[in-house]
Amino acid sequence: MPKGGRKGGHKGRVRQYTSPEEIDAQIKAEHEKAREAELEEGGEGVPKDPTKEKKDHSSDESDEDDEDYQAKRKGVEGLIDIENPNRAAQASKKVTQLDMEGPRELSRREREEIEKQKAKERYMKMHLAGKTDQAKADLARLAIIRKQREEAAKKKEEEKKLKDGTGAAVKGLQSMSLNK
């Protein structure tokens, strides 16, 4: 602990919590002050719009908070339009309001996956047509292998013919020698 610091600190103190009733009372007091300020600004002799008055009494406290927030802008807030996402109540949609028939936007991953599949299909078509570099190399290799196999088949046939020819000559000589 640094010299000259507090003794005891904040850790041993009793915490005080505000009850929900007190919070409601504070909110109502703030709304009354805001209404009085609106009356003073508008003038006491000017009649208020009855629709606004009905709206104030029938609306929720969150609606009133939004109206007071916009009415009480101080300093630079009046010049800069700031949207606080925590301040505005988000409107939830009902299932009946959702538009299921319209086109649904795809997420980035879904779009990328679809593009990948299309690119793969395009490549396979080009490959089967023999227009890709890999297909050309494969076809060249196949041509070389076919030539080698044809040459091997010709050699076998020639050897077979020679064998048959020499074999018949040898048999003929053997048969002659046996006849004697």
UniProtKB/TrEMBL annotation:
What's the domain of life for this entry?
Eukaryota
Regions of biased composition (Basic and acidic residues) lie at 25-37, 46-60, 101-116, 150-164
Q: Show the InterPro entries listed in the entry.
A: Casein_kinase_sb_PP28 (IPR019380), HAP28 (IPR039876)
Q: What region holds the Casein kinase substrate phosphoprotein PP28 domain?
A: 84-161
- Which residues lie within the region annotated Disordered? 1-116, 150-180
A Pfam family annotated for this UniProt entry: PP28
Extent of Basic residues compositional bias: 1-14
Which PANTHER family is this protein grouped with? Answer: 28 KDA HEAT- AND ACID-STABLE PHOSPHOPROTEIN PDGF-ASSOCIATED PROTEIN (PTHR22055)
Report the protein name in the record: Casein kinase substrate phosphoprotein PP28 domain-containing protein
The source organism is Pyxicephalus adspersus (African bullfrog)
